[in-house]
Automatic annotation (TrEMBL):
This is Putative transcriptional regulator. InterPro entries: Metal_resp_DNA-bind_regulator (IPR052509), Tscrpt_reg_PadR_N (IPR005149), WH-like_DNA-bd_sf (IPR036388), WH_DNA-bd_sf (IPR036390). It comes from the Bacteria. Gene3D superfamilies: Winged helix-like DNA-binding domain superfamily/Winged helix DNA-binding domain (1.10.10.10). It comes from Belliella baltica (strain DSM 15883 / CIP 108006 / LMG 21964 / BA134). PANTHER family: PADR-FAMILY TRANSCRIPTIONAL REGULATOR, TRANSCRIPTIONAL REGULATOR RV3488. It holds the Pfam family PadR. Residues 15-87 form the Transcription regulator PadR N-terminal domain.
Length: 114
């Protein structure tokens, strides 16, 4: 599935939500978790992930911690208090967008109906 442009607009939300659920994660772990959750349908590249992580960090949404793991240095990301608040706002925004998109694609669609 080629959905890189669709993912680009949702990447920050995806990162924030994963960090909310997992406390702290390193970059590769984030890419693998997305791949696992989507059964390989969505693959986040390092070229997309790290700029998004750095932007969230610069905006005060994330904090970082360097740890030595098996002779490797890993940079773990976790949510700040502002980041925790932002998760709810981003999720609400994304859910609203998806609902509106669904109404455009299928005007007969009603929320809650299968």
């Amino acid at each position: 599935m080629s959905n890189n442009n669709l993912i680009k607009g949702s990447l920050q939300t995806i990162i924030l939500k994963l960090l909310e659920e997992n406390d702290k994660m390193y970059g590769y772990e984030i890419t693998q978790r997305v791949k696992e959750l989507t059964e390989g349908e969505i693959k986040i590249t390092e070229g997309a992930l790290y700029p998004a992580l750095h932007k969230l960090e610069a905006e005060g949404m994330l904090t970082t911690e360097i740890q030595q793991v098996d002779n490797r240095v890993r940079k773990y990301y976790s949510l700040t208090k502002n980041g925790q608040k932002e998760v709810s706002a981003k999720m609400t925004e994304l859910q609203s967008f998806v609902g509106n998109l669904q109404r455009i694609l299928d005007p007969e669609w009603k929320p809650g109906l299968a």
